[in-house]
Amino acid sequence: MHEGLREDLPSYLNRDLLLQLWPVLRTLLGHTVRTVWEDAFPQLASRTRAGA
Prior knowledge:
By secondary structure, the chain is mainly α. The chain has a domain at about 15-50. About 75% of the residues lie in helices and about 0% in strands. It is globular and about 25 Å long. The protein starts with 8 loop residues before the first helix and ends with a helix.
């Protein structure tokens, strides 16, 4: 999740699984990486708020 290009993401990531696991994954990521992902994909941030 730290590497790769934005256009690579749909090819390698399962959207539904990422949304489901994001609350757990975000605890394993550093603050900067987490913020970049949540800024780029607002549905991740909203998933985190919904799961809290």
